[in-house]
Amino acid sequence: MPDTLPAIESSLSARNLAAGYVSGIEILHGVSVDAVPGQIRCVLGPNGTGKSTLLKVLFGFLKPSTGEIRSGPTVLTGVAPHAMGRHGVAYLPQRPSIFPFLSVEVNLRLGAWSFRRRHADVKRKIERAYAQFPILGERRNQTAGTLSGGQQRQLEFARSLFPEPKVFLIDEPTASIEPRITAQIYELIRGLARDGKAILLVDQNIKGALGIADYVYVMRTGSLYTEGPRTEFGDDVELLVSQWLYTHHAAKTA
Ligand SMILES: Nc1ncnc2c1ncn2[C@@H]1O[C@H](COP(=O)(O)OP(=O)(O)O)[C@@H](O)[C@H]1O
Ligand SMILES: [Mg+2]
User: What is the four-CA torsion angle of 193, 231, 177, 100, rounded to 10 degrees?
Assistant: First the structure.
């Protein structure tokens, strides 16, 4: 193999992203991340540091002022969110994205909207979702808003699988979820990685995220503070992150 090939195959690469919401106020100051098939890569960092902003830039909600996003040879910088599915990228936002007053089944049908003319495909995808998430099958006629937090997350995951994405950008999947469901959600994410999907996971639940991470990015006020394979952090990672949180907090309140 020629040594010019990258050591890892990346499904989504971002280099040197700078972005903000308001002109003149930069939130991300040159962030580079990769989503790699079969790996769970976690982005950690305190509130307000730009983790959600990073995922929004990667999915095209915000256009970076500098930097580049690629999937293999395809440049995705500036591609709109609605077109990202075609490039194999799925995004699960921090806030619930189900339609609470519609049934589970209708939510799934809306998720299959781009295949709506392929009736057999839609049916197959929905049946597959019920096989994978039996509780959704049992509650297919129930309004989605009456599902538990964890079940709503399952519905979002089920729906996100329809375009058969290669990359999942997942923002705080266990926020506002009952603790006993948290492990199920992490197991679901592990399953995606085992299927060869590339996961970029933003999480405030440091312990939970580190439990499933292959690789860790630590963010600090819009930049990467440190990064590396989970194993390189050893058992000190919690200590490292808590020290860093403390330093960050102390610097902010000084
Ligand atoms: N829609 C928005 N408009 C303006 N500023 C925003 C918006 N969303 C987030 N911000 C600001 O961007 C910064 C990073 O926020 P965010 O990416 O949500 O952080 P995190 O996900 O790490 O908690 C914060 O200072 C936040 O106030
Ligand atoms: Mg966030």
Answer: -30
